[in-house]
Amino acid sequence: MNAQAWVTLVVGVLAVVGVAMTVRQRTVADRRAQAWQRIAWCLDHTVGDKPVEVELGWDIYGTVTESPLVTNTEKGLLKVIAERAALALADGVETEDTRIENDREGSLDDNS
Questions:
Q1: pTM score > 0.70 for this model?
Q2: Which residue spans traverse the membrane (predicted)?
Q3: Is the four-CA dihedral 88, 92, 95, 98 of positive or negative sign?
Q4: Within 13 Å of residue 59, how many CA atoms lie on the same side as its CB?
Q5: Taking the C-alpha atoms of 62, 64, 65 and 70 in order, what is their torsion angle to the nearest 10 degrees?
Q6: Where are the domains positioned within the chain?
Q7: What are the C-alpha distances in Å from 100 to residues 95, 96, 103, 106?
């Protein structure tokens, strides 16, 4: 095999490896994006009006946050979110959403 054939072979192998790495990176990025969509869905349900929805949201949240697609830094962030939510529930702290809802209910009571 002459030098030109070797160069062609090496360039071809590098091109195949590059394409394979690109496909793998794209697949991981897509899977991570899907994991974050699931986490967002769970968080949306944890602040729902129905206790069954809230419980389901937290149950699934615990599962999806353990995904290997979630980095350690992201796990730390998600842990803080869960801790804050738990403290707010334990302390009965009003969030902006509950204050607005309570204000609406109060104004409805005043009008009757």
A1: no
A2: 6-23
A3: positive
A4: 6
A5: 170
A6: 34-111
A7: 9, 6, 5, 10
